[in-house]
TrEMBL record:
Family designation: Belongs to the phosphofructokinase type A (PFKA) family.
Pathway annotation: Carbohydrate degradation; glycolysis; D-glyceraldehyde 3-phosphate and glycerone phosphate from D-glucose: step 3/4
Location of this chain's protein in the cell: Cytoplasm
GO CC annotation: 6-phosphofructokinase complex
UniProt catalytic activity: beta-D-fructose 6-phosphate + ATP = beta-D-fructose 1,6-bisphosphate + ADP + H(+)
Protein name: 6-phosphofructokinase
């Protein structure tokens, strides 16, 4: 009997449980045995696992997090780690390993493959949406929804006090969350890697100051800045200080942080995770190896792991242009 193992690794993403559920159900359908390793790759190193059946995944679709837990595993960056993980898979006579995670998890999968003869399949599970080969990653839609609702609430209090708010969103080194959330909330400014050079923020700071001053002169309203994490040197507090020092602009900072990873997954993530989970098991039955299962348009596809990790996945240029068009129109209108 074919035996499939799965694990969730790295930062958790809403919808991981839906993917686990789909994989287990599909294994039962194919009459494959399925086991899950706990705490990411640490579960492989520590041989921490359990068999998974319908009963284990019957009521997990609506929950965030992951029933298999997750963790970072620095040991997989050491040559001994992948070898030890491979030995665990051999011990359990595993034919294929499915890993739900982001690019770090996939790099671990590539390192493991160098020491193990079985099939390896990746599912894109990260709120950052930074893996090539899939329009969206599992968890992205929920993170955008969560951040949008949070900024809508921030907007209420910002309007009440006519305040400038700097709201930092997650995304690691990608602007997908920043631009989607910024446009969805009507943010006056979006600062991300697509429109701001972290090594030279002076031009963007000058433009931002001008934009805030124009708005303050012409209406009494709030001003929301959506800031991608890891972009601004010193973070949002440094930007707050620079606005005060250079232009006397008072602002408040809100770092949304890990609330973007939590909560019940949005329907879009539940559906995507289910599709990708089912297709991952189909990929095993077709002897696919070293691939990530993604979805582009309405098509499910298997792309090389190396491409998913290394190929660029820029923010849709239309989103960047849409923000610039709105900003330019506003500045022209109020400078006349």
């Amino acid at each position: 009997m074919t035996k499939i193992a799965l694990l969730t690794s790295g930062g958790d993403a809403p919808g991981m449980n839906a993917a686990i559920r789909a994989i287990v159900h599909s294994c039962q359908h194919h009459q494959y045995e399925c086991i899950g390793f706990f705490h990411g790759y640490n579960g492989l190193l520590n041989d921490e696992w359990q068999a998974l059946t319908h009963a284990d995944v019957g009521n997990i679709l609506q929950f965030g997090g992951t029933i298999l837990k997750s963790a970072r595993c620095p040991a997989m960056c050491d040559p001994k780690g992948p070898k030890q993980a491979a030995n665990t898979l051999r011990k359990h006579q595993i034919d294929a390993l499915i890993v739900i995670g982001g690019d770090g998890s996939f790099r671990g999968l590539e390192a493991l493959k160098a020491h193990w003869e079985g099939q390896v399949i990746g599912l894109p599970g990260t709120i950052d949406n930074d893996l090539a080969g899939s329009d969206n990653t599992i968890g992205f839609a929920t993170a955008v929804t969560t951040a949008t609702h949070a900024i809508d609430k921030i907007r209420d209090t910002a309007n009440a006090f006519e305040r400038v708010f700097i709201v930092e969103v997650m995304g690691r080194h990608s602007g997908h969350i920043a631009f989607n959330v910024g446009l969805a909330t009507g943010a006056e400014a979006i600062l991300s890697f697509e429109n701001c050079d972290p090594s030279d923020t002076a031009p963007q700071l000058a433009r931002l100051i001008s934009q805030i001053q124009v708005q303050q002169q012409h209406n009494h309203d709030s001003f929301v800045i959506v800031l991608a994490e890891n972009l601004w040197p010193g973070g949002p507090q440094a930007l707050k200080a620079q606005l005060a020092e250079q232009a006397g602009i008072d602002s408040a900072v809100c770092v949304l942080g890990h609330i973007q990873r939590g909560g019940s997954p949005a329907p879009e993530d539940r559906l995507l995770a289910t599709e990708l989970g089912l297709e991952a098991v189909n990929a095993v039955s077709r002897n696919r190896d070293s691939v990530m299962i993604g979805k582009q348009g309405s098509t499910l596809q298997a792309v090389p792991l190396s491409g998913a990790i290394n190929d660029a996945k820029p923010v849709n240029g239309r989103w960047v242009a849409a923000h610039e068009d709105v900003l330019t129109e506003y500045l022209i209108k109020h400078s006349e």
